[in-house]
């Protein structure tokens, strides 16, 4: 198991999270070739971008209704529900 390192900004409005050491090393190696001043800034940007994409993609999805239909179909196929 890889050890973890904590990446975070030392401010009251931020939290720290543990990341695998190998990932932190990869991030830190990219920081000098980027416009970011720290690994924490880099990670914050990447996570915000990914979340924005995911939220935009799922914003219009009717996830709950679709998930409910899938669960009901699965329960029916297992004999727990009758059609």
Question: What's the gist of this structure?
Answer:
With 83 residues, the protein is mainly α. The chain has helices at 21-30, 39-59, 63-77; strands at residues 4-7, 17-20.
Structure report:
It is elongated, with a radius of gyration of 20 Å. With 83 residues, it is mainly alpha-helical. It has helices at 21-30, 39-59, 63-77; strands at 4-7, 17-20.
Straight-line N-to-C gap = 47 Å
Overall strand count: 2
- In DSSP terms, counting alpha (H) and pi (I) runs of 4 or more, how many helices? 3
> Shape from CA axes?
elongated
Question: In which order are the strands of the major sheet placed?
Answer: 1-2
Average of per-residue pLDDT values: 80
Strand content: 5-15%
- Major beta sheet, specifics? 2 strands, antiparallel
Query: What is the radius of gyration?
Result: 20 Å
The secondary structure category is: mainly alpha
Unreliable stretches (pLDDT < 50, length at least 5) are none
The succession of helices and strands, N to C, reads EEHHH
Helix content: 55-70%
The oligomeric state of the chains shown is: single chain
